Structure formats: structure tokens, C-alpha cells
Amino acid sequence: MRKWLNGIRASRDTIRNAISRRRYDRQRPPLQAPADVKRVVFVRWDAKWGDSVVFSFVPKAFKAIDSSISIEVITTPEMAPLFRDVFKVDAVHETRRKPSKEKMRQLAERVGEVDLVVYFSHLVKHRDMFLLSHLKARHIASLDDSVGLVDLKLGATTHGQHFAEKYAALLQRCGASRIDTRYIVPRDDESEARVAQLISARERPFVCINAYSKGRARSLTRETTEHLIQKLLVMLPAHDICVLSAPGKQEEVEAICATSKHGRVFCLPDTRRIHDNIALIARADALVSGITATVHMADGLDVPSFVLFPYDPADRDDWHSRHPLSVNWLAEPSDPLDVNQMDWPRAEAALEAFCQAVDANARKGALHTE
């Protein structure tokens, strides 16, 4: 049933996109590098925590080109504080995730004239097309080279690169030379204090495991989660395992922890916010996760990850962990995509090699702190 419904939705979206292109697209001559850029607007109304962290270095990098450049973002009210207060963009234009055409017209009027609009998606959909056609932009950059309105086409030239490298390519076209692509990870004092209190009562180092995603394709089943935990306990005998929680999952997490015979599997009681998980990852020696949001945060915190991807090589290219010790593992092909479809002997061999590297790295760090 789910496969059938997904097919119906895909057909509907294809028709909508085709109609939108015919109505609102128009051809512009391709551009190699925009000149005299003073105002840049990023369309991030679909932004989530993980991809926003990957974006986090971009505002500072643009300011390094010219401190007078205004870096602005179109995003939802929920994500606005992250861009405004943490990533320090100059302006945030708030809108709902899927605004009406009238709301998009009003948004375009509020934004006004812009030198460069950036919409970094592989596919410009019908609603995106409408907004891009109404924004008063001298230039538009995107990864969807098929759109005529897009004159700064970066899809083919950045194919196979990580999203951070795609942003770096955009920055280079705009005049950047040395680009620091390290991420900015939001931290919260209350969460840091709660986690510090939890960890102070424990004597052993630990690794985190994150099983929960909003989408089914990336979520680890309880069976997969418990299997990975048992392997980690054996492969890292000097470490404990911290199970990260998510909304509506605290009871399941605590049940998983309760199965530990020697108290080596634990969690933060009453996990409230994503900042709680960030504080835990920051104190961990490694992360095992099927969810790239926490992986990007781990990268920003210099924590290596064993990343479990559903069988989607292009997605892995876009969003893999960039830490030098990380392993980015693809599950077996399946329809629909499912991260739990593992060739376990091969996956466990890769996990063991990762654990050996993590243990060696932890020992080296311990020697440096003595």
C-alpha cells in the first residue's frame, strides 16, 4: 500500500512540476560568476537541523569575501532563531513551510531586489518555481540545471560532492579563496549542565547511538538497535553506550537501557530538546547513527561516526560524515528504501574496524590529557 501511495504522489508531483515550469520558467543566459554581489538570499523554507548545520559556515565565508554583503535566509518561524542567533545571518524572512501563492507574492515583495538568490536543491518543485519566478533577483543559483531561471548552474559541476563542497563551489564563484567549511553547532547551557551532571556520575567513556528519524527509511528498528548495541559492547569493552532519545521515544529508550545487565547502556532521563543530544554527542568518543542530522552535529563537534545509510548512493554522497575516522555504510538495495536491510557480516566487520580506530583515538587522547 505504501509503495502504491508513493507512486501516486510521485506522478502527481511530476505533473505539477511540469505545469509550473511551463507557466513560470524562462531562459536566462548561463553565468560563470556573479559580479557586484551585495545581497544574497538563501531559500531555506525546507530547512531541518542537520542540513542547516552543514550550511552554518556559509554566512561567515561570504562575509570574508566582503563584510558589507548582506546574507539573508527565507525559512520557517521554527528555524528562524537558529539562522538569526547562531549562524548570524543579517536578516530572516519568515514563512510557513508550504505557503500559498498569495503568501509567496507577499514574501517576494517583502524581500525586494536581490543580487543573488540561492536555492540548493537537486529538483526545483512547483512551489519553488513559483517563488523563484516572483523574486526580484539578478541571478539565481541552484543544483537543478534544468531550470531556465537558474543562471548560476552548479548541479553538474558539483555532482558527487558533499553539500558542504557544493556550498564551497558557490562561494568560489562569488570570489572566495580560502574557505573554512567547519560547522557551527548550537549549544545550550541548560542542556550542557544536565548532561554534565549525568556524565559526572559515570566513570567510563561512552559512544552514542541514535536510532530515530522522522522518516521510516532511516529509522533503525528496535531489533537493529539492540543488535548494534550488543556488538558495540563487545567491540568496545572499555566503553559504555548512550542511547539518544527523540520525541515520543523516551519509554522505548529506557526499556532498551533496562536490558543491560551491567549498567553499561544508559540514556539521559527526560530528554527534552535536540540540544540534549548535542551535549551528549559532544562528550562521546563516537556516534553510531542512521540519521544524518546528528552525524553533521558530530562532525561539527569533531566526533567520528559510523553512519548507516539506506541504499541511496547519491544521498550518501550529499550527506556523508566528513570526519576522517568516520565510516559511511550503505545498506542493501530494497524497495522501499530501508536502512535495516543489512549484510550483517560485512557491516559488522566495518563496525569492528571503526571501533578499533575509535578506541585507539580515545587512548591517544587520554595520553595527551595525563
UniProtKB/TrEMBL annotation:
GO terms for cellular component: cytosol. Keywords: Transferase. One of its GO terms (molecular function) is ADP-heptose-lipopolysaccharide heptosyltransferase activity. SUPFAM superfamilies: UDP-Glycosyltransferase/glycogen phosphorylase. One of its GO terms (biological process) is lipopolysaccharide core region biosynthetic process. This is Lipopolysaccharide heptosyltransferase family protein. It comes from Billgrantia montanilacus. The lineage of its organism: Bacteria, Pseudomonadati, Pseudomonadota, Gammaproteobacteria, Oceanospirillales.
